[in-house]
């Protein structure tokens, strides 16, 4: 999930590659061909002596015109933004859309409704460019609510939708400053006013603009939310990438506390809206922030957390996704070949993190995954037991790949603990985590759960190690 074949970086780590379904995965945009078709693009294209056509990516007018022709030529979308507004790069933004498509189609988190309705997304901070709704609707037929708070973003996002009558029924632009007054929201605001944490001014409560809570209406449900957050704490920090000019005003790029604060607010809102979304997602601009946000999502009680790295030219970006819905099918439908024992090492741990902390964190992970577990603190081990229902479903999918017709045959096969996790101190700062399969009929779920545990513990403890 989250990228095609991997390249290696100089330091040996895997670099992400363009998503295999990205329309530019096989071939980058052909500037010469686009210049011959679109006279307004031609002045921005120069051809080297070797015959290579390129544009000056430090020229805002050139990058905006490139985005305009790519959206028109490859997506049939009419599009424009005023000078200086953030100009999206179409191939990069498409990778995020395809990652969400992967999350939805993996069935990791089952659809909340059984109907075959159109996929419905919520784009937090859609911007004047409204890029994610336009891409999601034109590529995949998804419908969107796109929210924003600035007049220019709301005005231009609406213009971009209205310029595309073929998509306009699929996209609603919503002002996040005009929060809907759901009963739950009113209750929360009322309490905040009583506790003097919010100031009513002329009958209007002034606070930070809402992100999801109060903007999502009562009884609305979405398959996902997505967000390219304001990454920076100050416009100075935003700086300028001398190699490209993609515009971006302070309102678009900056918020108090930067992306960490913004995404933390999404995580807080997600707790109140846990049943309104299958997946909550956000882009993250800095790996250090991703490492801080993953534990926050776990602490919020998410049942599943996923991360990915996006290919994004010279700049690395990450995707963070989480859900509060029980991951029945992720656990159930695993074709991973099963080994009876698996293990991984945690190297370079800080002195205060030993086997006990890792054991506790593993316990939290199993609780969040709705798995029954029994911890033995003196042996540093946890026995995980599946409920009858979980075991039955896991076996059905592992053995037969289908849930039809086999329930009675399989029901009695699983009793007692299914697998055991043990933590061993190897030397100061190094722990070995071993998983042992106790019931071989559950090898698929053992394998997939152990892989997730590995990701979670590495993310949590190896980030703390630095
Ligand atoms: C980095 S821009 C992203 C624009 C566009 N989605 C893109 O990917 O190019 C962040 C956007 O978030 C908006 N924003 C800031 N606070 C917000 C809030 N509380 N609710 C919704 N949008 C907000 C900004 O106005 C800005 O348009």
Structure description:
With 466 residues, the chain is of the alpha+beta class. It folds into two domains: 7-176 and 211-325, Rossmann fold; 329-465, 2-Layer Sandwich (TATA-Binding Protein). It has 16 helices and 18 strands. It has helices at 31-37, 60-75, 90-105, 131-140, 151-162, 165-168, 183-194, 235-238, 250-253, 258-272, 287-299, 328-332, 355-368, 388-400, 407-411, 443-465; strands at 7-8, 14-15, 45-47, 53-55, 120-124, 143-148, 171-175, 199-201, 204-206, 222-227, 277-284, 304-310, 317-323, 341-346, 372-376, 381-385, 419-427, 430-437. The longest helix is centred in the C-terminal third of the chain and has 23 residues, at 443-465. The structure holds S-adenosylmethionine. S-adenosylmethionine (SAM) is lined by residues 86, 88, 124-127, 129, 131-132, 147-150, 153, 176, 209, 211, 228, 230, 251-253, 255. InterPro entries: METTL16/PsiM (IPR017182), METTL16/RlmF (IPR010286), SAM-dependent_MTases_sf (IPR029063). S-adenosyl-L-methionine binds at residues 93, 125, 148, 228. It is an enzyme of class 2 (transferase). Residues 1-20 are annotated as: Disordered.
Rounded to the nearest angstrom, the radius of gyration is 24 Å
Q: Say what the CATH topology of the largest domain is.
A: Rossmann fold
Q: How large is the count of helical segments?
A: 16
Structural class of the secondary elements?
Answer: alpha+beta
**What average pLDDT do the residues reach?**
82
**What overall geometry do the principal axes of the alpha carbons give?**
elongated
CATH architecture descriptor name of the largest domain: 3-Layer(aba) Sandwich
- Main sheet: which strands, in order across? 7-6-5-10-11-13-12
Number of domains: 2
Question: Can you give the helix content as a percent range?
Answer: 25-40%
Portion in strands: 15-25%
Region (Disordered): 1-20
Family: Belongs to the methyltransferase superfamily. METTL16/RlmF family.
Binding site for S-adenosyl-L-methionine: 93, 125, 148, 228
Keywords: Methyltransferase, S-adenosyl-L-methionine, Transferase
């Amino acid at each position: 999930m989250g990228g095609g074949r991997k390249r290696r970086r100089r330091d040996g780590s895997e670099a992400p590659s363009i998503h295999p379904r990205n329309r530019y995965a096989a071939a980058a945009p052909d500037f010469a061909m686009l210049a011959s078709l679109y006279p307004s693009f031609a002045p921005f294209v120069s051809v080297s002596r070797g015959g290579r056509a390129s544009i000056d990516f430090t020229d805002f007018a050139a990058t905006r015109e490139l985005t305009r022709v790519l959206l028109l030529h490859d997506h049939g979308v009419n599009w424009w933004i005023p000078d200086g507004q953030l100009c999206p790069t179409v191939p990069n933004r498409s990778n995020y859309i395809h990652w969400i498509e992967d999350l939805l189609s993996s069935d990791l988190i089952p659809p909340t409704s059984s109907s075959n309705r159109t996929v419905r997304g919520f784009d937090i901070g859609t911007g004047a460019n409204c890029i994610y709704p336009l891409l999601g609707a034109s590529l995949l037929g998804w419908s969107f609510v796109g929210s924003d708070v600035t007049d220019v973003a709301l005005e231009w996002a609406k213009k971009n939708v209205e310029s595309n009558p073929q998509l306009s029924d699929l996209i609603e632009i919503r002002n996040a400053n005009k929060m809907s007054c759901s009963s739950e929201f009113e209750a929360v605001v009322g309490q905040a006013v009583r506790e003097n944490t919010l100031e009513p001014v002329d009958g209007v409560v002034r606070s930070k603009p809402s992100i999801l809570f109060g903007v999502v209406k009562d009884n609305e449900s979405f398959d996902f939310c997505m967000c390219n957050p304001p990454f920076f704490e100050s416009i100075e920090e935003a700086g300028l990438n001398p190699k490209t000019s993609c515009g971006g005003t302070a309102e678009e790029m900056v918020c108090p506390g930067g992306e960490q604060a913004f995404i933390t607010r999404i995580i807080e809102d997600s707790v109140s809206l846990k049943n309104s979304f299958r997946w909550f997602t956000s882009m993250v601009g800095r790996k250090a922030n991703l490492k801080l946000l993953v534990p926050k999502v776990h602490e919020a009680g998410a049942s599943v957390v996923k991360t990915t790295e996006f290919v994004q030219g010279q700049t690395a970006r990450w995707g963070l996704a989480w859900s509060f819905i029980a991951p029945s099918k992720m656990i159930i439908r695993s074709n991973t070949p099963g080994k009876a024992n698996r293990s991984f090492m945690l190297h370079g741990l800080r002195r205060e993190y030993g086997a006990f902390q890792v054991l506790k964190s593993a316990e939290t992970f199993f609780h969040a995954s709705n798995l029954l577990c029994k911890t033995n603190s003196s042996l540093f081990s946890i026995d995980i037991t599946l409920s009858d229902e979980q075991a039955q479903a896991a076996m059905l999918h592992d053995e037969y790949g289908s849930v039809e017709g086999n329930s009675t045959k399989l029901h009695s096969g699983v009793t007692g603990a299914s697998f055991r996790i043990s933590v061993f101190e190897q030397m100061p700062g190094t722990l070995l985590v071993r998983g042992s399969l106790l019931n071989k009929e559950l090898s698929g779920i053992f394998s997939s759960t152990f892989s997730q545990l590995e990701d979670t513990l590495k993310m949590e403890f190896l980030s703390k190690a630095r």
